Amino acid sequence: MSNIYDNNPKGDKRTLIAVVLSVIVITAGFMIQGALFPPAAKTAAPAAPAAAASPQPAQAPAAAPAAASAVRAAQASPAAAKDPASAAIEAPLAERSYTISTDLLEAVFTNRGGDLVSLKLKKHKDKNGAVDLVVAGDAGSGGLSVAFGPYGTAPVSELMNARMIDEKTIEFSRTFVAELPGKPEGQSFVYKKAYSLRDGEYLFGMAITLENSVNEYLPLDRAGAAYTVTMGPQIGPRLSDLSKNARADFRKYITYSGGKKREEKVKPGIAFVPKEQPTWVALSGKYFSFVAVPELAGFTPTFLTEADPAVVQKNLVALSRPAIKASAQTDSYYFYFGPKTNAELSKYDYADRNAFGRSGFNLEQAMDSSGMLTWLENILKFCLKIFYKLTPNYGVAIILVTILVKAVMFPLTKKGSIASAKMQEYQPQIQELQAKYKANPQKLNMEMAEFYKREGYNPMSGCLPLLIQFPIFIAMYNLFNNHFDLRGALFIPGWIPDLSQPEAIYSFAPINLFVFKLSAIRVLPVIYLLSQLFYGKFTQTQASGQTAAQMKFMMYGMPIMFFFILYDVPSGLLIYWIFSNLIQIAQQVVINDILKKRKLELAAAGGAPAGAKLNKIAPNKGKGKKK
Prior knowledge:
Layout: H1 10-35, E1 70-73, E2 97-101, E3 105-110, E4 116-126, E5 129-132, E6 145-147, E7 161-166, E8 169-180, E9 183-196, E10 203-212, E11 225-231, E12 252-257, E13 260-264, E14 280-284, E15 288-295, E16 300-308, E17 312-322, E18 328-339, H2 342-345, H3 374-390, H4 394-436, H5 441-455, H6 464-482, E19 506-512, E20 517-521, H7 524-539, H8 545-565, H9 571-604, H10 612-617
Antiparallel strand pairs: 1-8, 2-3, 3-4, 4-5, 6-11, 7-8, 8-9, 9-10, 10-18, 11-17, 12-13, 12-14, 14-15, 15-18, 16-17, 19-20
Helix pairs in contact: 1-6, 1-8, 3-4, 3-6, 4-9, 6-9, 7-8, 7-9
């Protein structure tokens, strides 16, 4: 099956590249029209385990045993069955699940290997109810499974003893035997796995304790690894439950090392090990993330992406712990399963803001960035939140933000319209120059430049509003596509239930139309197309020859091309663009009325040379200088 949910969604890249190229074409068209025819690894210090007792001090091991070849569960003999000391060896006869609830999470564990099989976020819903961030694959679920050995070793699947330490902490334990060369009976050790959750936290702790039965190094050293913790096969929400649109969701791997975030490129079907030792690793989706923070001196992360029919795409994160040079050891891990919001992720930078007292995690680095336009996106997000508090409806808030943006840009819009009107009046002189120097393009360019300088006109002035709108469009695109609060934000019941997704009045199996894949009938793209065509018709200027052909393409060709580009974008972005067009039409009515009145006033005063009328309306202070 094709990777439609790759680490970097290809749909987003293609859309942004198409938009960038389209805007460049538009800008170049205006420029040509105006000028010729009238863009070392940081590791957390070891700490007390999150869920169990502190590591037990042990005497120096007498000797190191030979490397273990395999590990099996220990079995109690019938004679020892009544011995209380054999409790760690005996295990339940049947699998059983255990549930721990906090105000934010509902976690379900199984005594088979002590794995996490479900983790529901109570305050975040999808169409199946609360979002479950532990998704079962074709072979079932094994969240935070442990295997004795390196990545690729079969995980522990034996039934384990379970006990509730308190209402938010559970511990699983059992005695295992490591098979050793020259030692037929093997070497027994106790394995404990404890989880600790807290109210108000999407972060929870896990402690792994290993205790040898003799005063020797723990018999766990296979290819240099004692054990491996694996999260997989996928984090929720289920990819198969989301829109078939490639922008709906994605999964990508992130490492954080030395204060720097790195997005790792993982090829399908090939296990990937990062070059640098990270402080933490993350599997990040569009709105939710899994972040693993081992409090170890060293560990080896492994990422794997491959097909899985049950989850569309399998994404595994494995953490291998080096061989242990002690007879007893407790390792602590912290795992964040939750929304990609700065408010939640930044809590673990300060010890007094979270129940675990952790600091310096810098988990907000797992969030997506808009690069150079982050500042603009943050401003728009701030305005959006203010308007949402006033309404509260994010669809209405988007419309109010659109009105605000258009109001701020009105002076530039007016300047651009006046520049277009000037160009209209200059057409006779420009056409005369074009006819006169038709056979000498170099002389024509010189004469055109001299003409513009003499009239105090900058041919680029009409393009300025368009150039400024481009970064606003990109910031809006990132905001509507990634802003967590827009996830599931309702605008119009029955039509636009989620502003972060494309709206649809009827969905069906994808049809390949060569230009793009059609999977739904949508109304907003049609409304956008009509508004764009109406805006172009309303603001068109008179032209002839090649200029007229260019204007016709800009008026009809570009809106139709954008119709296909924007067909599957988030509905919030289309609402912004539609209302932007409508507001711009209203602004153009006002500008045209102002221009008409000024022309009549100047005509009544006795007329003026071509171009001078509008120069009096909006004189160019930078006369003779090109921008």
